[in-house]
Amino acid sequence: RTALLRLWNTLIVPTAGQLRAKGQWIFYVAHLYLQGQLFAMQDTVVAASHHDRPYCITKGWPAPRLAQTDTLFAQIKPIHKTPTPLMTLSIGLKLFETGIKVVDLLTPYKKGGKIGLFGGAGVGKTVVIMELIRNLAVEHGGLSLFAGVGERTREGNDLYYEMQDSGIIRYKHLRPRGSANAAVDAQQSQVVLVFGQMNETPGARMRVTHASLAMAEYFRDAFRQDVLIFIDNVFRLLQAGSEVSTLLGRMPSAVGYQPTLCTEMGCIQERIVATQAGTITSIQAIYVPADDLTDPAAVVIFGHLDAVTVLSRALASKAIYPAVDPFNSTSKMLDPSAHGPVGGEHFCVAASVKQMLQRYRELQDLIAILGLEELSSQDRIVVERARKVERFLSQPFFVAEVFTRIQGAYVSLDDTIMGFSQIINGELDVWSEGAFYLKGAIRDISQ
């Protein structure tokens, strides 16, 4: 208590005089992790205590257990809740600009939507995730959450240290240089990591997604932030639910899955929405069991997705990063109507890019047998422009600067549409295809 009274005399009393003049009062001291840390939350000043239980300064007796209380909502929030009421939802379709050219052009994301991310080992899935986290934090001022559900503990550990190396997670030293005592810098770090990996019990793996969504809803509703949540892997959520259902003795349903398969997935997906306060956008890594898209778990997951992003190993072998497959990646946001969420020009350019790449794929076998000289002049022009488009789909990432030694680039949607439109129309035929590799906007090709 001596330390608490010393803290009261040195930190609280001067602040109390200022607040009392404004008609505000200090009403409790909460237990925090940082010793002597003083910070304000709206009209409440909270100071650190050495005690496990918080103490009420004004009354002198132990206060109720407030260490886990949400000071903004004034109540403890459960991780399970009903979906957001329809009257509070945002009815507008807004595009979530990622700053990644191939994603914004061919598979545009919707604010408050659900995106499925397919990719095997070594195709750059982690780098894409970290770049999205960086772009949301720096360019949009938003927060990202990563929920590790039923995957390897090693992958979560590697992701944690890779985020430190790339600057997504930053530390500040609380004591003079040379001290090992450090804490996460909340002003610079804009990511929350929630892990329930495969070494945990099925109950923990089943509920870690609910816990991360409760955090995302807190930041969306209290701070009116746009939140991006990554779930790796959403199939493991259903797998953990199947284990829990077996332990409860329930009769299995189709292919041995739990009878509550659709309900469990709906409870998660229906909370990922855009409201009038903010948005929660979800990117979900999906494992398809035995590559069978007719599996009941895969069918249930696909029914909720607004966009699908597939990472191709063939493109990764060509060193084209991000290795997004333009043919298998789709999005509901690509609407041909002029008044659609992406606009008519965006749709026309995206369709022209896919058409040109498809024609180039059809001609590849003929080129391998007869050579490029045997093609018609029109097909030769198509091949040259398609190879430029393929290389222009690559992009330098900020989080990969330590590997590529190339400055990262954030490309707006307007610059992306303009660049690909110029390539397709032949305005840049004088440039060689190598000038388009690992470039940001179209104006960077001359550098």
Question: What does it look like?
Answer:
The chain has 447 residues and is α/β, with parallel strands linked by helices. The protein has 13 helices and 13 strands. The strands form four sheets. The protein has a seven-stranded mixed β-sheet, sandwiched between helices. Strands 1-2 form a two-stranded antiparallel ribbon. About 13% of the residues have low confidence.
Secondary-structure element series: HEEEHEEHEHEEEHEHHEHEHEHHHH
Secondary structure: helix percent = 25-40%
How many DSSP helices?
A: 13
Q: Largest sheet, order of strands side by side?
A: 9-6-10-11-5-12-13
Uncertain ranges: 19-70, 174-180
- Content-based structural category: alpha/beta
What is the end-to-end distance? Answer: 65 Å
Number of extended strands:
13
Radius of gyration: 26 Å
Taken from the alpha-carbon principal axes, the silhouette is globular
Beta-strand percent range = 5-15%
Average pLDDT number? 78
Q: Let me know the largest β-sheet.
A: 7 strands, mixed
Descriptive keywords:
globular, 447 residues, alpha/beta, seven-stranded mixed sheet, 38% helix
